[in-house]
Amino acid sequence: MRGGTVAVVGGSVAGCALASAAARAGADEVVVLERTQGRLADRGLGLCIHDGRAAELTATGALPAGIAAHPLGRRRWIVRDDAAAGPTGRVFWEQPFPFHSYHWGLLWRGLREATPASVVYRQGAAVTGVADTGAGAEVRTAGGRAEPYDLVIGADGYRSVVREAVCPDSRPVYAGYVCWRGNLDARRLEGLGDGGVPSDAVTTVCFTGGSCVIYPIPGPDGPRVNWVLYATPPNSGRLPFDDPTSFPPGRVTEELTAHLGTLLDREFPPHWARVLALTEPADTYVQPIYDLEAARTTAGRLLLAGDAATVVRPHNTSGVAKALQDASAFEEAWRRAGTWSELLDGYHAARGAAGREMVALARRLGRGQVEQTPAWSTMNHREVQSWWQELLDGAADIGGQAMRP
Question: Which residues are in the FAD-binding domain (predicted)?
Fold first, then answer.
C-alpha cells in the first residue's frame, strides 16, 4: 500500500520513530504535531537499550546509527553493611547486563535528525481531540481547527488524547510508589574516592521497601551519572498521584526532597549517598509510577504507539525499545497491507499482546524490588538467582522482548 496522509500526535521519541516509519513505508504526507514549544533535546534523563533489541532496531532502521551510547556489561547488587563492607557497601550478587546507556535528549536529537525531510514537524501544535470519521480521521487543534487525515497515530505519551478516543476507559493507575530521578556531571565525582562509579556497570542499591539504580550515561558536554531511586513517598495520601502527574526539576516539594535525604542517610552505603547528593536540584525530579495497558491499540483509523498504548514501569528497562519496536512493526504492517484496515489489523496483531506482557513483567519487577522486597542482606547467590527467575516468570530477560518475525 502506498499513499495517504498521516498525522502523528506527539513529536517525542515514539513520534519521530513512527513518522519516519510512515514516510519510509510510502505515505504521501506525514505531519507531526508536537504541543511543546521548547527544546525537547534539553531533557537529560538517562535510559538503557538492550544490545539485542538495539541490533534488531538498527537493522530495521528504527534506531539510527551514530547516536552516542555508553556500553555496560554487568549489574552489581549491593546492600549497606556497616560491620563489614565499608563505605561502598557489600556486593551480594552480580549478573550480566548487555545494554548500552543513552542520554534522552541526544537520542531524541538523533531520531529527529534522521526523520525524512518530507515529514512536516509542527511545534506548538496542541491537539485537543481526535475522531475516527469512518473514511478517515480528524484532528482538532487548540485553535479550533479540524484537520482531516487518512490515519492518526497517537504517540502522545501517558496523557494521550488519542487514547481517549480509542479506549476512553483505559487510564494510568498509580502503582503506590514513586521514583526520584537525577543525573550529574561525572566530573563532580573527582576527589570523591572509593572508586567513583564503575564505568561498565549498573549499581543497584537495595534496601527494605525500595532500590536505586546508578549508571554512567553519555551527555552533550561529557559523561554524566544517572540514577533512579524507587520508594514509597512520605504521607502519600496527601500527594496528587491519583491523576498522572510528575514533579519536574524546580518543582519537587520540600517534603519529597527531605524524604530523599532521609533515605540516603538511613539506607545507602555512605559512598553512594554522597554520589547522589552531588546532584543539583535543577537536575532532580520525582515521577510517580503508573501502569497502563490499553484495551485496544487501534480503532477505526486511529492507532496507539509508545506510552500512549502501554505505560510500563521503568524496572523493565524497555520503554524506548518498545516505542521503536512499535515503529518497526508499524512499518512492516504497512508494507504487507493492501488497505488501511489490513494495516491496522496487522499492527495490532504484532503489538497488542507484546505490550500487555511487558506491563505484567514490570509489575512483577516492581513487586520484588519495591513493594515486597526480600531480605537481600541474608540471601546467598543461589537464593538471589531463584528470586530473580521467579520475577522473570519465563521471560528471557529484562529490556523488552525480541521482535517476532
Answer: 288-360
Chain centroid to CA 89: 28
What total of structural domains would you count in the chain?
2
Which domain covers residue 167, as residue numbers?
Answer: 5-59+106-172+291-371+383-392
What pLDDT score was predicted for residue 368?
Answer: 98
- Residues 88-113 pLDDT 10s: 999 999 999 999 999 999 999 999 99
Evaluate whether 18 touches 33 at the Cβ level (below 8 Å): no
Banded pLDDT at 346 (limits 50, 70, 90): very high
Q: In this structure, are 304 and 161 located in the same domain?
A: yes
Q: What angle do CA 197, 213, 106 make, to 5 degrees?
A: 80
Backbone angles phi, psi at 232, to 5 degrees: -75, 135
300 & 348 share domain: yes
Q: Is the same domain home to 151 and 240?
A: no
Residues 325 and 340 in one domain: yes
pLDDT tens-digit map of 127-175: 999 999 999 999 999 988 899 999 999 999 988 999 999 999 998 888 9
Question: The sheet that has 46-50: what strands, in order across it?
Answer: 46-50, 90-103, 70-79, 201-207, 210-217, 224-231, 173-185, 284-293, 310-311
Asked which of 65-69, 109-113, 246-250, 389-393 is least confident by mean pLDDT, the reply is: 246-250
Q: What is the CATH number of the domain that holds 304?
A: 3.50.50.60
Cross-strand partners of 216 = 225
One-letter amino acid of 217: I
Q: Which of 255, 274, 290 is the last residue of a domain?
A: 290
Domain boundary among 290, 313, 342: 290
Largest CA distance in the chain: 70
Average pLDDT in the chain: 93
Quote the pTM value: 0.95
Separation CA 219–CA 222 (nearest Å): 5
Task: Judge contact between 25 and 71, C-beta under 8 A.
Answer: no
Q: Is residue 392 a contact partner of residue 95, using CB atoms and an 8 Å limit?
A: no
Alpha carbons 55 and 296: distance in angstroms, whole number: 28
65 located within any domain: no
On whether both 258 and 225 belong to a single domain, the answer is: yes
If you search the block for the grid coordinates 507531526, which residue do you land on? 32
